[in-house]
Amino acid sequence: MKTYLLYVSIAIAAGLVFVNFYNSLVDVRSWGSDIPASIMTTRSYFKTVNPAVYFRIFSPMNQVIALICLIFFWKSNPDIRVTLGAALLLYILADVFTFAYFYPRNTILFLSGNQDIPTLERVWREWSRMNWLRTGIVLAGLILSMISLHRSYSR
């Protein structure tokens, strides 16, 4: 059962990483292709649904499952406990980073109605660069979860 949950955590974390990659490689490039027109198009597109809907479901789900895995594996091997704990901290850090850094920029880009080109370009560049860092944080957590899985089979 506990190994199954670790597989689920790994699958969800991998999904988060790949959706972040997609955002950086496709969405963000589209948003910045012809500012302000591209931002206005994105605002119009995001009126019904946006990528945050996905992350608001799967990121907390991943954190809860990662926490359950940490609890279930707590007594097995101290090395597994350390890597699972570090993975959980990285998953939480990615969300803290999202709320502190990305939400204010999302407001400027997609909700504020701001059409000031220099501001939109600056915020778009900041968003674009830092999304790679956020992706790296979640990827590091994913790798630590996979190391934990490997250690669970190695003992």
Question: What would your notes on this structure say?
Answer:
The chain is 86% helix and 0% strand. With 155 residues, it is mostly helical. The longest helix is centred in the last third of the chain and has 38 residues, at 117-154. The chain is elongated, with a radius of gyration of 18 Å.
Secondary-structure blueprint of this entry?
Elements: H1 2-31, H2 37-45, H3 51-73, H4 78-111, H5 117-154
**Cα gyration radius (Å):** 18 Å
- How much beta, percentage-wise? under 5%
Averaged pLDDT, please? Answer: 95
Class computed from helices, strands and strand pairing: mainly alpha
Helix content: over 70%
Biggest pleated sheet: none
The low-confidence runs, each spanning 5 or more residues with pLDDT under 50, are none
Shape descriptor: elongated
Primary descriptors:
mainly alpha, 155 residues, elongated
Give a brief outline of the structure.
With 155 residues, this protein is mostly helical. Helices cover 86% and strands 0% of the residues.
